[in-house]
Design a protein that fits this description.
Glutaredoxin, globular, 51% helix, 2 domains, 16% strand, two-stranded antiparallel sheet, 171 residues, alpha/beta
């Protein structure tokens, strides 16, 4: 009888955790990481807001890309804490698409991936409004436990450099 009560309590606890996660997922603000179509426009927006651009080069069916998108980028967008810190975008490096580059000319996704040395997925780069890198790119996922800290550090460094560049330009 004692063991039966323990099992019932155990099942109630597990059901509570599972159902609370399901309920939480239903009520989370839906967000998407926007796929880049026009870097010229993204650069204009970045210059106007004086914010760096974070671009994740990803591939379809890449579990690590999915991990970064779902566990880091989407929560960052959902929180609103990064709205005035960074513009978050994504490029599918395995697509055959072309898009408008920072200079207004057409460029293939493959050329962009080559330019930013994004041969592995995910690769996250931090760019200014002209497409120059502001901090060290993040290639792959080494340790999930520290990834968020490394991401925040790179965003902060990129933001600081972007602000500094605009201050120097206005003198």
């Amino acid at each position: 009888m004692f063991y039966l009560k323990q099992r019932i309590i155990y099942l109630i606890i597990i059901f509570g955790f599972v159902s609370s996660n399901i309920v939480a997922e239903e009520y989370l603000k839906p967000v998407t990481v926007i796929e880049v179509q026009d870097l010229y426009q993204e650069g204009y927006t970045a210059a106007e807001k004086r914010l760096p651009i974070l671009i994740m080069f990803s591939m379809q069916h890449c579990p690590y890309c999915e991990l970064i998108r779902e566990d880091f980028l989407k929560p960052m967008l959902r929180s609103g804490d990064y709205e005035n810190k960074v513009i978050i975008r994504e490029i599918h490096s395995d697509s055959y698409a072309t898009l408008r580059d920072f200079d207004g000319k057409e460029v293939s996704v493959d050329e962009l991936a080559h330019r930013y040395r994004a041969s592995l997925s995910p690769t996250v780069v931090f760019l200014d409004h002209t497409g120059r890198e502001l901090s060290k790119r993040m290639i792959g996922v080494t340790t999930v436990d520290y990834y968020g800290g490394y991401l925040d550090e790179a965003i902060e460094q990129s933001f600081t450099r972007m602000q500094s560049n605009f201050r120097q330009a206005s003198k």
